[in-house]
Amino acid sequence: MRRAAVEGVAAYLADEDADVHNIIDAAVRENAVVAALNLTALAAAAVTALAEATDRTPADALRSIDRADIGRLA
């Protein structure tokens, strides 16, 4: 299930909307709670890496992402 989260994010970054939908849809159908937890864990790892790379706290890095106008889903 973790692999599905990674593949979904990779497809999103590559702007492959159909692949994102198919990957995440399959993961959610298999186990929605586990899919959500894996996506949350993946996001937390990314925020932690951003914080370390920019010498910020994870909370500050997360706030900077929240304020940015990046790839909002409709």
Report on the architecture of this protein.
This protein is an all-alpha fold. It has one domain. The chain contains three helices and no strands. The protein has helices at 2-13, 17-53, 58-67. Helix 1 packs across helix 2 and helix 2 crosses helix 3 (58-67). The mean pLDDT is 87.
Mean pLDDT: 87
Instruction: Please report which band the strand proportion falls in: under 5%, 5-15%, 15-25%, 25-35%, 35-45% or over 45%.
Output: under 5%
| Helix proportion range | over 70%
One letter per element, helices H and strands E, the order comes to HHH
Number of strands: 0
CA radius of gyration is 13 Å
Categorize the overall geometry.
globular
The total number of structural domains is: 1
Q: Count up the helices.
A: 3
Write out key terms for the chains shown:
74 residues; mainly alpha; 3 helices
Topology:
Blueprint: H1 2-13, H2 17-53, H3 58-67
Helix pairs in contact: 1-2, 2-3
In short:
By secondary structure, the protein is mainly α. The protein is 80% helix and 0% strand.
